[in-house]
Amino acid sequence: MRAWVLILSLLGLPAWAQPPNIVLIVADDLGWNDVGYHGSEIRTPSIDALAEGGVTLADFYVQPTCSPTRAALMTGQSPMRHGIYYAIGKNTEGSLPLSLKLLPEYLGEAGYQSVMVGKWHLGHATSAMLPMARGFEQVYGHYTGGVGYWDHVHGGGLDWHRNGVALREEGYATHLQADEAVRLIRERDRERPLFLYTAFGAPHLPNEAPGETIEAYGDIANPNRRVHAAMVDELDRAIGRIVATLEAEQMLENTLIWFFSDNGGLNPAAHPDGMRRLVSNLVAVFGRPLPTGFLEFVRHNTEDGGSDNGPYRRGKGAVYQGGILVPSLLYWPGTLEAASVSDRMTVQDVLPTLAEVAGIELSPDQVLDGAAQWAVISGVGEPVETDFVAVSREERAVLRGDWKLLVSGDVRELYNLAEDPFEQFDLASEHPLLVEQLRSAIDRIPQRESINQPLFRVMMDMDRFGGEEDRQPWADAVIQAP
Hints:
The chain has helices spanning 3-10, 45-53, 66-75, 103-109, 173-186, 211-215, 223-248, 273-286, 293-303, 321-324, 350-358, 374-377, 432-443, 455-460, 474-477; strands at 21-27, 55-57, 60-61, 113-119, 138-142, 153-154, 157-158, 161-162, 165-166, 194-199, 255-261, 328-331, 339-341, 345-346, 388-391, 395-400, 403-408, 411-416. The protein has two domains: 19-267 and 307-384, Alkaline Phosphatase, subunit A, CATH 3.40.720.10; 274-304, no CATH class. It is built from 15 helices and 18 strands. Residues 1-9 have low confidence and may be disordered. It is α/β, with parallel strands linked by helices and 482 residues long. A hairpin with a 2-residue loop joins strand 16 (395-400) and strand 17 (403-408).
């Protein structure tokens, strides 16, 4: 090894001759115990193989819902700066701020071919908000939240497109997304490194999967868990196809793969006890489905999720561990040695870390809340410690060192995660000064006014997952910016 390469390696800095390809794979609502390498009954051999040969992140945090996580991923910032506190609704007129430079733009300026497959969910009201206006050269998938896996409908409108043109095609969404990822790899610009962002919709509701895959999990008694397992199984097969294509194209040894879930999994335990009791009482009176679209949508999200976040508390939508601690791994054969990293990392670290890997200098005018963590990932340095603030509709949580503070109105809960990873013992009354110090850390992050619609407007036109079409495709509804 040449001396300068050795020095860079010891400093934890990139020392390769050419920038690597980057494949970023994000699952949707995948729980901690939904992958085989965490002990799940769901068979995920492709993900497990990446975990076995790569670097698993045992303490990787995201936001508790999809749009905030994606905003943090694309910017390296807290989504509070963007006014994105929960999922962006189909009729929301706002977006991730257009003034920000995003991950694909940085990579594109550095010579990468940036392409995307799957779920955007960062704003779609105008063409300026769409991924092709924000750094991606080719895009395939859907703009809004969860879509039907077979009909590709969200909230009454077809939400399936290629490069902004509404697309009607038959097939299971996870299969189609894998097909497109494979095509983009094979037809890439071979003169440039590739950045492929594959944001799968699986295993987000609705519970839909091919019959033969569901039958393979016939030993699971809970029907929601059974179909959820099949959706995760299909996701794993899709990831296997991507890895196999990289290998067939002789790209694997010059490709960094980073995989994680956008938030904790959805299941009944993700919700507060009061919500579950309310839904149960309504079902006892009216049966299923509940009598209005709003109530049925609430019931669907409360009862039908089949994920498993065990042994952690709650799940999607909550700032407890089950909602924000997710499976994550990096794989780069020949460069990263198999290891498990227990130091905390977050979705806000992804952009600065990938920028470091690609040799990109980030704009000094765009503040970061995350930090480059390549040194600890590659095993030659220490992590950069930063506070992490998780946000939901009504709650906030801040993590610093071993401590985690939850804030909900006037309620404060304090946990020492090193001693109490399952958040059973609230220590707030024993450490009032620490509570105030951590609370002030939340206030130090600028909090933009929410871009989301008020709840009463959402109730009038729900973001249903699949179902009949009652309006034009979402790609056709985009207002074309001048």
